[in-house]
Amino acid sequence: PTPVIIELFAANVRSGTATNAGLIALYQDGTSIIGLWGQVRSSVTGQSDAPVHLSRRMTPTAGSHTYSARAWCAAGDGVVFAGTGGLGNVSPGFIRITAA
């Protein structure tokens, strides 16, 4: 099998409530494959917002696979922002897989 680089980009990820975090995991075929991939930690006083660009180099097993990124908060409402791009709009988000 060929090594690949899997990337996730979101222009903005908002954490949950104060002192909480927005958590992101990488999944392959419906199963978390590396556990926690990234997080946006909130401040003591409220939610935090941050752009996210995560990358992981790995060698998948032979055959085709379906990859997804899943985000959640332990408390409160987190948000992953992605849009259409262009003037006044949030940039598109993506998951990209390229040969390493």
Describe this structure in words.
0% of the residues lie in helices and 56% in strands. The protein has strands spanning 4-14, 21-28, 31-41, 49-58, 67-73, 79-81, 94-99. The strands form two sheets. Strands 1, 4, 6 and 7 form a four-stranded antiparallel beta sheet that branches. Strands 3-2-5 form a three-stranded antiparallel beta sheet, with no helix packed on it. A hairpin with a 2-residue loop joins β2 (21-28) and β3 (31-41). The protein is globular. The termini are close together.
Offer a few descriptive terms.
100 residues, mainly beta, 3-stranded antiparallel beta sheet, 7 strands, 0% helix
Report low-confidence residues grouped into runs of 5 or more: none
Q: Alpha-carbon distance between the termini?
A: 11 Å
Order of helices and strands: EEEEEEE
* Shape, principal axes of CA atoms: globular
Number of strands: 7
Overall mean confidence score, pLDDT: 89
Share of residues in helices: under 10%
Radius of gyration: 15 Å
- In terms of DSSP E residues, the strand content is over 45%
Provide the structure class: mainly beta
Largest sheet: 4 strands, antiparallel
Topology:
Elements: E1 4-14, E2 21-28, E3 31-41, E4 49-58, E5 67-73, E6 79-81, E7 94-99
